[in-house]
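About this split. The held-out portion is used to measure sequence recovery: a designer receives only the structure tokens and must propose an amino acid at every position. Recovery is the fraction of positions where the proposal matches the reference. Here is one held-out target exactly as it appears in the evaluation file.
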């Protein structure tokens, strides 16, 4: 009986240890993903602003490797990247960020202005744009 109880305790402890923080709550993954998402949105909507595609892909690959190093599986990473909920959350964060910059997230011209500002600042968003 004691052996069964000890095994149960150990298995419960192992399950708790295996539980991971969602990638959205890992700042070293989520913050850079936000920058990439903003750069993509800007380059998609602003004809005079182009993406630095190779730089972006290399950066995304390094983020994926970081997530793998943190113990996340390929399927966990893919679920985070492909999640409609996460995409909607990033859009909401982008709108909030634009408002904080004094810009209107509903206006494409404001999005393009943000892109130019980010490039001028050489920010994490700006480095993915040209």
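Reference sequence for scoring:
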């Amino acid at each position: 009986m004691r052996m069964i109880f000890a095994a149960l305790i150990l298995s419960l402890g192992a399950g708790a240890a295996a539980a991971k923080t969602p990638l959205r709550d890992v700042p070293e993954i989520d913050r850079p993903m936000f920058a990439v998402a903003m750069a993509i949105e800007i380059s998609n909507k602003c004809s005079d602003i182009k993406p630095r595609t190779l730089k972006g892909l290399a950066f995304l690959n390094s983020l994926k490797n970081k997530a793998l190093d943190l113990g996340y599986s390929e399927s966990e990473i893919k679920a985070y990247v492909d999640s409609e909920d996460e995409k909607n959350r990033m859009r909401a964060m982008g709108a909030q960020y634009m408002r904080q910059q004094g810009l209107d997230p509903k206006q494409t011209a404001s999005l393009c202005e943000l892109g130019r500002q980010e490039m001028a600042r050489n920010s994490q968003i700006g480095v993915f744009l040209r």
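Annotator remark: Confidence is low (pLDDT under 50) at residues 5-17.
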